[in-house]
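Lecture notes, structural biology module. Today: joint structure prediction for complexes of two components.
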Amino acid sequence: MSFTLVQVIVSGLLLGAVYALFASGLTLVWGMMNVVNFAHGDFVMLGMYTAVVIWTALGGGPFASVPAAAILIATLGVLSYFLLVRHIMRGPMLAQILGTFGLALFLRYAAFWYFGADFKTLPDTLVGGSFTLGGVRFEGARMLAGVGGLAITLLLHVILTRTAMGSRMLAVSEDPVAAQLMGIRPQRMQAVAWAMAGAATGIAGALIATFFYTSPTVGETLAIIAFVTVSFGGFGSVLGALVAGLIIGVVESVSAYLIGPVYKDVIVYVLFVLVLWFRPQGLMGKA
Amino acid sequence: MKTTRRGFSTGAAITALGLAKGAGAQAAAVKIGVIYPLSGNSASAGNYSKQAIEVGADVINNGNADLAKIMPLAKGGGLSGLGGAKIQPIFADNQGTPAAGQNQALRLISEEKVAALIGAYQSGITVTASAIAERHGIPFVNGESVAANLTERGFKWFFRVTPVAIDFARAYSEFLREQKAAGQKVGSIALVHENTEYGNSVGSVIGEQFAKDGLSITQKIAYSANSSDVQPQVLQLKEKNPDVLIFISYTSDAILYAKTMKEVNWKPSIMIADNAGFNDPAFVKSLGTTVEGLVNRSTFAGGKPGSVPALFNELYKKKTGGDDLDDVSARGLQGFLVLADALNRAGSTDPAKIRDALKATDLPAEQMVTGYDGVKFDDKGQNVKASTLVTQMRGGKYVAIWPKARATDQVILPYKGW
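The predicted structure, tokenised, for the full assembly:
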């Protein structure tokens, strides 16, 4: 195996970890309350703009922008839950779909209005440095994003499966009425889920902004990946999103390298369709 | 439709009569219809072009001493061939849609009674607007639309001043062959292009021209412009390590390629970008210093002090409060000046006479705002002297380096990057 191929696989894994992080917020909300958040890509976009604003206004790097984006987008998540999602959940399925879709358009065009249509990028010196290990080059911004993505996705998984809070959330997702009889407040748990999903999404945005471009429509490009990752890994499973994200990242990179960039999406989607064919619930979803 | 044309002849006759009668009386202003996107997606480009044309009209009507030394039209006092008639651009908004462009062309011709039309930025809108002009027998001068088919329709009233893809391909080819003669290696060339109409068509034109000129393209990569990651492609390039790399890209992909090449730490010895994404002010502002020495094309690049482009740029800067002319606005202004010159020589607002004057256009290089070799139309209405300048990124700004006659700076190779 050539060094270049190893390099391609490494970069695919690092990218996949970021995919996993911004898919985990989506899968969490779905698993909790069967709501698909179509505004998810635009949450990522706002996380990216948080990083851009913190750099241009305050000169702050990711260590300032990651917590700030986490708090801001978590707040946005909670607000969206109380002001919009809680109400449309009582309506028909179509209202749920169009409700968050409307939110997506609102956020996107608000960004057009406030930030303008220009592409923004962060200076690449913000997360400087790189090192070479066994002929493979690791670059600062991508390492930070990949390792950060991996760590936060795993943390989310641990919170959901190993803590009392996680158990309460699981109880609400399985049967809100029974959970309420046990003294758990479903709405509070659902709001917590939106906050956690928002925080993860905001962090993903702030991390990806260090090596990507930021524009009001960037959410569209990224949301597709998030939706594919979530259904590939299984709706509701954070661990599934992690595995799926890593697989998609590597398959995308390797096929772009070996076959050609215009074919990489074909290969990813063929794989995606095959997985759904044999396991409609996704890799780790519950049947 | 004939009536309209006759209407114009009558109008011209009355103007002529007025001239004969009123010695010293002000001749009626000549109206020119200008169709641009003043709203919609491309509104910023349209509005910059509008201001450039306003500067042009002001120079013709009120004169400019420095420009008058080079351009006869800049003496002031309007169009001397029409008894000092002022030139009056009437602006219309094409709203970014072919239908609106068509309607505006019709309105300008039938209600505003314009003598000729200019526009319309987007190739697709130039198609519909110029078809209306053709039907009414009104000259249409286009300054900036590059779609090849515009001059392949057999139109008799359509004139295009801008260079098109083949001119760019020739410029790159000649530039590279000169660098080869000067000792640079150009043995292997990689062509990386996005895979919509723009990237595919320009890519194939470059490929054909290079093959004819004995330059070998050894690697061709097509990618989709909304890719989320380009690292595998840059690694592919790094592995093959071509001497020359040519990009045909939009903005988002240009940003990703520039960033990723630095991350991967690879650069060719000559890197060329075909305008578009790499010329976007957003790209230049944030990544200009990451692509030091990048070779690009532009029809406008400032020019030497005292030259036509430099003088017009000063006037434009004053008008806009600090903005420089750019590739698009300069080409729009050039189109307007070509029409004004033809009107002046026609000495009449009769459409047929204006057309004949346009056909006889022969403007020299030193009168150009843009970096053309001049203006002279072929039978299809394409400017055969249209050419492009080759520019190079120097400290966050593009400067002209080729052809030598209009270069402001020396070529510096190899590509430096970051």
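Point to remember: Chain B is about 40% helix and 15% strand.
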